[in-house]
Structure formats: C-alpha cells, structure tokens
Design goal:
With about 240 residues, the chain is α/β, with parallel strands linked by helices. It folds into 2 domains: about 1-160, Alpha/beta knot (3-Layer(aba) Sandwich); about 175-240, Trp Operon Repressor, Chain A. Helices cover about 45% and strands about 15% of the residues. The chain has 9 helices and 9 strands. The strands form 3 sheets. It has a 5-stranded parallel beta sheet, sandwiched between helices. A two-stranded antiparallel ribbon has the order 3-4. Helix 1 runs parallel beside helix 6. It is elongated and about 70 Å long. It binds adenine.
Length: about 240
C-alpha cells in the first residue's frame, strides 16, 4: 500500500506519520508514504499557488495547474513502478464528502495506492477537482483549516488494516466496531490503584468467563455511550447477523 499526498505542507505529513505505530510500520516498509509538494509545481517565479476567487468573496482559492501537475508527477511515478499507466483513486478531503468510517477504511485498504489531495485557504478551483478526484471524503461534521489532518486520520486508520502494522490485540478493536460494539474496558498492573481493584474475573485465568464478562461490558458500554450504534447491534442480533 502506497500513500501519495498532494499538499502545501509535506513536512506536516512526514512528522505526523513518522511518529509512533505508523512511523515504525513505515520504517519496516509495511507501507509507503510519498508527500508531493504542490508548491514545487507552481511554475512561476514567486511559487504562487493561489489567487482571488472569481465573483469576489473572502480568502484565496488554490489554482488548478499546480495541483494537476503534482497529480501528473504521481502518475509518472506509478507508470515507472508498474510499467503501465494507472488511474489511482484520488481522495479530496472536504466537509462536503461522504463521512469516513470503518467500512470505508476497509474498502480503501484494498487499493494498491491512494492519492490524497489536501486543500487549503478557501478551497480549490472546481475544474481540477472534476478532472482528477474520484472520492470526496469528510472525517466528520466540523470544519478544519486544511486537508492534512483528515488525510493523516485516514492514512492512520487504513494503515492499521495492513497486515503486520498492528500487534494482534488491537485487531480486536476493529472487529468490535464492525459488530457495532465498543471495546470493553482494559486494566493493567497494579492490581489495586487509588483504592480500586481490577475486576476479579480478569485475574481468574478462566477464559470463557473472561470472554463473557468482556462481551457484557461491551454491550453495556455501547448502550450507554453510543445508543445509535447499539440500535444497529440489536438489529444485527435480531436478523441473526
Ligand atoms: N477539510 C476541512 N474540514 C474537513 C473535514 N471535516 N473533513 C475532511 N476534510 C476537511
């Protein structure tokens, strides 16, 4: 899996992704990360990549040509890598997109490469979006200053589905969300902390009882914290999966 990121802030992508679990996975070559600086494709003396919106209004709009040229650069690299022309999926991060969730992450994880286009300022010239974007995706109903953080959220989530990126335990968390349930609470040493003891069953070594206890806590927690998810869980149970 290779991620290409068209951005004005490649260092932000590098720093974010080279930290923690994704950083380790990158070092191990479990996925590839290739930020492309849109400004390198400005094609003018002052490296200008934005201009005033036609029709007036606040802020600046990113111009189409530097974005298209950075996309062409990615296509050239893909041609070199595969020995044939490829049209990769190009994700534009926008609050106007389909809301990202675990099933969409799973679908995107099947791709060999993904291109993320990170917008800034007041937006991106519509014509280049029509030309290259295949997927408009939002990470939630709130507005951020740019697409870099949403792209990193998506890459983190998709990368952890790549075999080897995670240690075993964490894969359970994905599964529990796919069953429309939240994860059960976790405990580690010490056995007693600020007067609170770890639930006795977890010290019992009795795996069937531990599993049953965890399932109950998952259900209880989902009902309380995410009634919307709990309804889906109930429906799934009723329909026998
Ligand atoms: N860009 C700005 N806000 C965003 C959001 N919520 N999701 C994706 N991209 C964005």
């Amino acid at each position: 899996m290779d991620f290409y990121v068209l951005t004005l802030f490649p260092e932000m992508i590098e720093q974010g992704m080279r930290t923690s679990m994704t950083g380790r996975a990158l070092e191990q070559g479990l996925f590839g990360l290739y930020p492309v600086n849109i400004r390198d494709f400005a094609g003018n003396k002052h490296n200008k990549v934005d201009d005033y919106p036609y029709g007036g209004g606040a802020g600046l709009v990113m111009q189409p040509q530097p974005i298209y040229r950075s996309y062409e650069e990615v296509c050239r690299r893909l041609l070199k890598k595969h020995g044939e022309a490829r049209k990769p999926r190009v994700v534009y991060l926008t609050p106007q997109g389909r809301v990202f969730d675990q099933p969409l992450a799973k679908e995107l994880a099947k791709e060999e490469e993904l291109v993320f286009l990170c917008g800034h300022y007041e937006g991106v010239d519509e014509r280049v979006l029509e030309e290259i974007v295949t997927d408009y995706i939002s990470i939630g109903d709130y507005v951020l200053t740019g697409g870099e953080l949403p792209a990193m959220v998506m890459m983190d989530c998709i990368a952890r589905l790549v075999p080897g990126v995670l240690h075993n335990r964490e894969s359970a968390e994905t599964e529990s969300l796919e069953n429309h349930l939240l994860e059960y609470p976790q405990y580690t040493r010490p056995e007693e902390y600020h007067g609170k003891r770890v639930p006795e069953v977890l010290l019992s070594g009795h795996h069937a009882r531990i599993d049953a206890w965890r399932k109950e806590r998952s259900i209880e927690r989902t009902k309380e914290r995410r009634p919307d998810l709990y309804r889906k869980y109930e429906e799934m149970e009723k329909s026998g999966k």
